[in-house]
Structure formats: C-alpha cells, structure tokens
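Render Tubulin/FtsZ GTPase domain-containing protein in 3D.
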Amino acid sequence: MQNRFTKKPKTEIAPKPVTPPPKSPTPPPRSPTPPPRSPGPRERVERSPREILSIHVGQAGIQIGAAAWQLLFELGQFIRNIFLYITTGKAVPRAVMVDLEPNVVDSVKNSIYGSLYNPRMLISDKEDAAGNYARGYYTIGKQVIDPLLDTIQKAKEQCNALQGILVYHSYGGGAGSGLTSLLMERLNESKVPVMNIPIFSSPKYASSCVEPYNSVLYAGSQYHNNISGCSIMMDNQALYKICESYLDVEIPSFYNTNRLVAQVVSMLTAPLRFSDPASANFNNVINSLVPQPRLKFLSFACAPLASTESTSKSDVNSIHEMSQFCYKSENQFLTLEKKKSEGPFLRSALVYRGHASRSGIERTIKHLKTEFRISKNRLRFSNWNPSEIKLIHGSLEHLVQSQLPPIPRTYDLQPSDLSVCSVSNRMDIAEAFKNLHHKFDLIYAKRAFVHWFVGEGMEEGEFSESRESIAKLEAEYESTRNGS
Ligand SMILES: Nc1nc2c(ncn2[C@@H]2O[C@H](COP(=O)(O)OP(=O)(O)OP(=O)(O)O)[C@@H](O)[C@H]2O)c(=O)[nH]1
Ligand SMILES: [Mg+2]
C-alpha cells in the first residue's frame, strides 16, 4: 500500500527544464539471431586475469548499463576480463544490476539481450525508493544490501584477479543516491578500486524537487566517509546539449543519452580492457588522476563529436584540435560555465584511439604541456600540484595501432579514424557542487520535504552534516586553486 513516504514528491520547486523532459528509452532493434542461452546454476567457469566488474544501481544505472552492454553485444566484443566464459562457450557479462522495484530490471530481462545476462545477478525488490535517499539508504535499501553484497561476492569469486569495479548510478534517484551510498561504504571496506559513472544532478533538469537533497546527501557521505576511488561525472543537461548540438538529435531522450554514454565509456575503458594490465589498470588511473582521495570528481570530454547521419566530418579533426577541444569547459560531459581561459587543472589524462602516428601524438602532448606551462591565461595546471598530462594507455604501440570497432549505424556518434578522450581533475568542478548546494539551501531553508526523510529513519542532522561536507569539499578545491 502507498503511504505518504512511498509517494514520489511533486516537482513544483524543481527548476523548469528548458526542453521537454526525456522520454523513456525505446526498445533496441530486433537481433537477427537468437541470443545464446543463460548459464545454468552449476556450469563450470573459465577464469581470466584482471577482470572488471560492473554494478548498475537504480533506473539510470541499469538503463545506461543495458545500453553499454548492448553495444558490446552488437560489436561482438566478448572480452574475457568483462565477460565470464562458461564451459558451453557462452560469454556472460560480469555485471550485477540492482533496483528496489522490479520494472527496470524486468525490462532488461525481457529485452532481446535479456538471456545473455546471468539472471541471478539481476536483483530487484518490490518497492522503489520514491526519489528518497533515506529510503534507498535506510528502510528499503537495508533489505536489499545483504543479497546484493552476496551476489557481488559470487561475481568476485568468478574472477582471477579483479582489477576494479565500475558503479553506474544517478545522484538524483532514491536508489541511485541512497542505496549506492550504502554500497560504496561496504565496497570501501573491501579495498577493491572503484570507479563511479554517475548521472549528476544538472542545473536545469530535475526529475523531482528533492534531487538536491539526494545529491548533497550522497556527495556529502562520500566526503565524510572518505570513500576512495574516482567518479567520472556526467549530467543530463550536458548530454542533451551534445546530442542536440553535435549529433543532430532534435529532442534527445534517455535512449540517445544512454547510447552516447555507452559509446564514450567504451572508448574510455578501452585501455583497461585491452592494454597491458601491468600499466593500464584501475589503480594506475585513480592514482594518476586523484592526488587526494576527496578530490576524486573528474570531468570527461571526447572528440570528434559528429553525427552518424551527417555526411561531413567534424570540424575538429587534427590530433591537436581534438585534444584542445577536450579541455574546454563547454565541451565537458558535465555542465560547466564557458571560460575565457581554462584551468587550473589538478591532473589530466588522454586516451587516443585509432589511426594516428606515434610521433603525432607525442608532439601534441608535448605541445599541450608547454602550452599549460607558458601561458597563464590558457589551460594550466595548479601550482599546488604541478602535474603533466598522462596517457592512460599502457602501450602507445597498441594505442596507435588499435583498430576502430565498426560501431552500428543506429548509434548517434559517428566513429572516427582517430578519437581522443580526456579525463581531467579540473578545479572548476567545484562549480557543479556550488550549484547543487545553492538549490539545496533554497529548499532546506524552508525545511521542505524534510519529514519524508526523517520518516524513513534518517536523523535531520545528516542534512547539515552533508551540507557542511560539500562546503569543505568546495573549500578544498578553492585552496588548491590558491596554491595553499
Ligand atoms: N541519462 C539518464 N538519466 C536517467 C535515466 N533514468 C533516470 N535518469 C536520471 O536519474 C535521476 C533519477 O534517478 P533514477 O535512476 O531514475 O532513480 P532510482 O535510482 O531508480 O531511484 P528511485 O526510483 O527513487 O528508487 C534523474 O536525474 C533522471 O533524470 C536514464 O536512463 N539515463
Ligand atoms: Mg527507480
């Protein structure tokens, strides 16, 4: 039965979206061949080294995850570190999907790719968190966390040497924030490196008026619980803008954003999947980009961005132009203000993929490094933590020679002979948190909806504790900017 706590809050306080709200994803195209069957309970497994486990939490986490796995199914990239091969020869995603209500998980099970997943790794319960962090963390989430941890443990036992865990989720949903927060605390105890791929709350879109609460409670708990790892931040406003401006999608929906994220996450994680694990692995990436555990929020960009529909190529073509494009604030997958001069940056890494000369890439990186150092008005790194741009790729040979996968034409982002991704620890990411805290302050000043959270067993003090943590986080970014 629904009570006042299980009802989704209304959106009257939420900032109005500038374009119509996203539609739910349309179903994937029918596959010509029936997918292989799911694994039986006692099938023997083959083991492979340096595995990556993906955990998808809540609607956003699962829907983006389903798009990311679909891309790999369609490309036929059944790589052993992300797929488990069972003795029948079938490859099963090393993926755990969890939601508090059944609909989203059921739609994955009933999709044409549904039988490719291990059904025991698709977990759902009866009632969602109704956009409420406290339900995701305390009441409903508490019922799910143990079965979830058992399932993750089983997935870990099927690994030879797990290199890290990718966690996909939203900041705004009750499960995405609350359950993920609970999960992150438990994963942190296990010391396995974790990389989050969250949908952060965007300045102009919100699916509920309490998204700022959920987001502050999630981010605050990451800060005061010292949760390590890194977080590659994206938001729907930035994703819609990229779909509209570069990919010719008139009214983007989650169908488009999720397939875009699937494509770029595939580019970004390619080094972790393909390269020499000794040099490109989760720990190396996190250590190169996160100088202090709390400053773990990274922004992402890639080039070229051109639509599969357009006959012309992107204007940004040379290695140098593409690399420059990736450093501009307005091209990030997270909404940041356009700047006259970029930076400072704490750390940054570039991933090149496709056909390029080794010397061309080296020249570009040298040029960018010089540019950062000599001109105070252009891209620059922080004095506090002077650092150079790194290549995430372990092997430059591999990077230059790697063949581009034939991306299906149903995807919006046109594949290119050469692509570049940047992941940066930019200090202006603090802007995104300022924006969030501002929205939080507006509703918290009136104590609006606080009773929904307190009614689910959360102490009111958690609001102010998390809000203080966000202020400290912003101050840490500020002090690094000032070189202290
Ligand atoms: N990009 C993208 N964003 C999504 C998707 N689904 C939801 N969101 C965003 O995620 C936030 C809402 O979180 P959800 O993931 O729907 O919520 P949940 O984790 O399922 O939590 P509850 O439904 O409250 O139990 C909003 O900011 C939505 O805009 C999706 O498929 N893709
Ligand atoms: Mg949900």
